[in-house]
Structure formats: structure tokens, C-alpha cells
Specification:
4 helices
Length: 85
């Protein structure tokens, strides 16, 4: 008999957790501190901008990237074979 009551309590707690998770967006809209966070997030998202690449610019960007990688690799310090010993 005790096992059934514990099982019932666990299942009830799981059901409550599922309902809260499903209703969270609606519940969050009623909590002032959560609304403030959402407004701050929306404000940050407004400053984002979409960067679109034109097909001809992709080739230029790829060439610039390859050149910068080669330049960075040539500037890396190297260890000579005799320095390793």
C-alpha cells in the first residue's frame, strides 16, 4: 500500500513538472522580472544586422582569407631541428 502512494506522488510531481514546462511561456509573461529580461533580449536583438554575401564578393573574401592565412603562417615562430635537441 505504501508503494502505491509513493508511486502516485512521483507521478503527480512529474505531471506537475510537465504542465509547468508546457505553460512556461504564458507563465513567464506574467512575471515582471522575466518580462524585463525578455525586453532586454529583444533590445539586443534589434541591434543585430544581417550580412549577406554577393556571389562575386565570396571569391574576393576567399582570396583575402587565404592570403591572411598564408601571412599568419609565415609569421609563426619555427623550431629548427638543431634547437630541438
Amino acid at each position: 500500500m505504501t508503494f502505491v502512494s509513493w508511486l502516485f506522488l512521483v507521478l503527480l510531481a512529474c505531471a506537475v513538472a510537465v504542465v509547468i514546462a508546457a505553460e512556461w511561456p504564458r507563465l513567464a509573461s506574467r512575471v515582471p522580472s522575466l518580462r524585463r529580461k525578455e525586453r532586454q533580449r529583444a533590445k539586443r536583438k534589434e541591434s543585430f544586422r544581417l550580412v549577406q554575401n554577393a556571389p562575386d564578393l565570396d571569391e574576393i573574401a576567399a582570396d583575402d582569407f587565404a592570403a591572411s592565412v598564408e601571412r599568419d603562417l609565415s609569421r609563426l615562430p619555427t623550431i629548427e631541428e638543431r634547437d630541438r635537441r
